[in-house]
Amino acid sequence: MLDKHDRELEGFYHYCPAVAMIVTVSRGPEKDAMAAAWHSPISFDPPLYGVSVSPKRHTYQMIVDAKEFGVNFVPFEVAELVAQVGGCSGRDVDKFERFKIEEVNPLETSAPIIRDSYAAYECRLFASSTHGDHEWFVGEIVAAHADSSAFAGDGVIDVQKAVPALYLGMDRYLKIESSETIELDRRRLADLRR
Length: 194
Ligand SMILES: Cc1cc2nc3c(=O)[nH]c(=O)nc-3n(C[C@H](O)[C@H](O)[C@H](O)COP(=O)(O)O)c2cc1C
Prior knowledge:
Blueprint: E1 18-19, E2 21-27, E3 30-36, E4 39-43, E5 48-53, H1 58-66, E6 68-73, H2 79-85, H3 95-98, E7 103-104, E8 113-114, E9 119-131, E10 134-146, E11 166-169, E12 172-174, H4 186-189
Antiparallel strand pairs: 1-11, 2-3, 2-6, 4-5, 5-10, 6-9, 7-8, 9-10, 11-12
The structure holds flavin mononucleotide.
């Protein structure tokens, strides 16, 4: 129950746990990767995916220049890599070399695709707009990669095979210990005739 009411935002982690993923980009011979927890699917047709990137990030300018980026969903076992690429800048280090990030070939872009991901999108920059201190990059998904064993036939993730890296804020990550799921039939549950 809500019992604290403020006009000032204290911390900004109320929406967590949030899936922490890795945004990748390449510009000529240069590559970069950063952790991102602020991201979202936006549209089915065309398929659009958005990520909020601060102009302070090296990745920001690289996406502006490359006009494409990769979205890499990595499992909990790889959460350390999320912290590593989120803890230093591509201005100072080649993260792919330093953290020995292995890639698979992209299909439609030059965005690096991380081999250990359970799913990854190649995005071509579709739109970009500034909101406060972050840039909302909207990418059109032009290719998708998946670990097919991690998804059921209907496209839903099988959390027995792949557990997403969930971020809580302040460098804390949630380890999901149970793979128990429940199905809530929206039509039956919302049936107003009942
Ligand atoms: C879990 C986690 C989530 C993050 N989410 C974002 C995000 O959504 N947007 C952003 O601009 N920075 C985010 N960051 C910070 C960047 O990943 C970090 O500043 C990174 O070092 C930038 O690297 P770069 O300078 O090579 O681009 C996050 C960091 C962590 C650890």
